Known about the structure:
It is a single chain. Helices cover 15% and strands 28% of the residues. By secondary structure, the protein is of the alpha+beta class. The strands form two sheets. Strands 1-9-8-7-6 form a five-stranded antiparallel β-sheet, with no helix packed on it. A hairpin with a 7-residue loop joins strand 4 and strand 5. The radius of gyration is 29 Å and the shape is globular.
Amino acid sequence: MKPEIVLAYEFVEFIPDELKERTLYISHTYCTAVHKCCCGCGREVVTPFSPTGWELTFDGKTVSLYPSIGSWSLPCQSHYFITKNKVVWTPTWTKKQVARGRAREARAKEKYFAKTQPARAATKTPSASPLESTKPKESDAPQRKPKLLV
């Protein structure tokens, strides 16, 4: 059984070089939260806030992060939620579950950014020489009688 952990939190502009155990550092300026992994391994866990990433909720007394924190790239493979300052442990995922989760996140990002990008206008394939398309064709030129200069 994993230990019950209650986190403190600090709102900061810059994340400090030295992180305290059991403290979630929150930077609104840089839209991110950072803490030492709650398993005790001491590794730094970074959770950037974005429409397709983590969301922070602050109710005036406690903080929560959503979705869960899966430290899949760390040796500990810890998996937990931070809900109202408490660490809620969840089962470690298999490699297959991690791959599916990452694929789901990638699809969500792709879908989100496809909606936020302006539609690209259809473009013509350029001719071999850009000047060729601007040169008037002889048949397009107005027909004039040559002037005689005396």
